[in-house]
Amino acid sequence: MCIRDSMGEALEVYQMAVQILGTIYGQVHKDIGLCFSKIASIHFRIGTKESREQALYYQKQAAYVYEAFHGLDHVQTASAYFNLGLYHYNLRNVGSAVHNLFKSFFLFNILGGEYNPEGLSILVNLALIFQENEQYQTAIGCLYEALDRTIALHGPDHPKTVNLYQGLGTAHFELEDFKKAIEFQEKSVKILTRFCAPNDIRLQEAQAILLRFQKVVQEKQKAEQVKGESKRKFGQNKVRRQPGQESGEHIFKNDAGESSSILKNKEREFLLQKARMARMNARYGFRRRPGFDLMRFLQAQTQEWGQQMEEDESKEGR
Which of 19, 90, 113, 181 is deepest in the core (most CB within 10 A)? Predict the structure, then answer.
C-alpha cells in the first residue's frame, strides 16, 4: 500500500513538472519527453491493464516529443521507440511492437554502426517475440544476425555467444531440425565448460537441455523403428510386384483395392523438410545458412503489420 501511495505521489510530481516545463519552454522540450517517459515507467510498474494502457499512451508522447526536439537520429529517440515496442508487446500488440522495435533497430544502426550493443539487444528481443509467436524461422534469422555481430566483436568462443547458441538450438528443436539443435547446444555447453565451474547452475542447465534434446532424438528413432517393424502385418498389404518392376520399388494393395507406391520413411521426412525450407526461402529469402535480409522481411510483413496496427488503433479509439 505504501508503494502504491509513493507511486501516486511520483505521478503527481511528474505531471506538475510537465505543466511547469510546458509553461516555460512550450510543449516540445527534452525534459518534457523525459517526464513522459518516467510517467510511462511508473504506470507500467503498477501492473494493471488500465495502467499499462496509460504507460503506452505516455510513452508515445515521449517518443513524439523526442523526435520533434532531437530528430530521428538521436539516442533518446531510438530508446523511446524501443521502450514503446516493449510496451506494445506487453499488451500483445505484436504488429505494432515489431514495427517500433525495427524502427529503433534502424535508428541505432545509423547512430552506432552495425556492431552497436543496443542493436544486438533489439535483435534478441525480436527473436524472442517471433519465437513466442511460433515464427521460428524468422527468429532463427534474427539470432543468426545477432550471432554474426557478436562473433565479429568478441570472437566465436566468448561467453556472450552462449545465449545465442542456446536460442538457435531451441528454435531448431521446435522446427524438428534435431541435428542443428544438438550442434548449437553442444557449442554452448563447450563454452560454458571453459568459463564456468562444474557446479555452476548455467552449465548444469545447459547440460540438462542438451540431454533433453538427445533423449527426444533417441525416442523418435525408437518410435520410427517400431513403426517400421509393425508396418506390415501377416495377411495385410501383401507385396505384388508388377512385371518389369525394379526390386527396390514396392506396390502395396490395401483392403479397398487401391494401389500406390510407398516411399521409405526417411525419404518422406527429407522431402517434407525440403518442401518446408523451400516455402521459407520463397517468403523470407533464407538460404541454406540463413542470412537475415531485413528489407525483404519487412516487405513480406507490411500487409500483416498494417492490419494489426489498424486493429490496435481501433481498439485504442474505443
Answer: 181
Residue with cell 501516486: 8
CA distance 179 to 279: 20
DSSP helix/strand/coil, 148? helix
Beta bridge partners of 252: 239, 260
Residues 244-255 as b/e (b if ≥16 CB within 10 A, e otherwise) read eeeeeebebeee
pTM of the model: 0.69
Q: Cell 513466442 sits at which residue?
A: 132
How is residue 261 annotated by DSSP? Answer: E
Q: How does pLDDT run along the chain (318 residues), one tens digit per residue?
A: 456 668 888 999 999 999 999 999 998 999 999 999 999 999 999 888 899 999 999 999 999 999 999 998 999 999 999 999 999 999 999 999 999 999 999 999 999 888 888 998 999 999 999 998 888 888 999 999 999 999 988 888 888 899 999 999 999 998 888 999 999 999 999 999 998 888 889 999 999 999 999 999 888 888 888 776 666 554 455 445 555 444 444 444 444 444 444 445 556 665 666 666 666 555 544 444 444 455 555 555 555 666 666 676 666 665
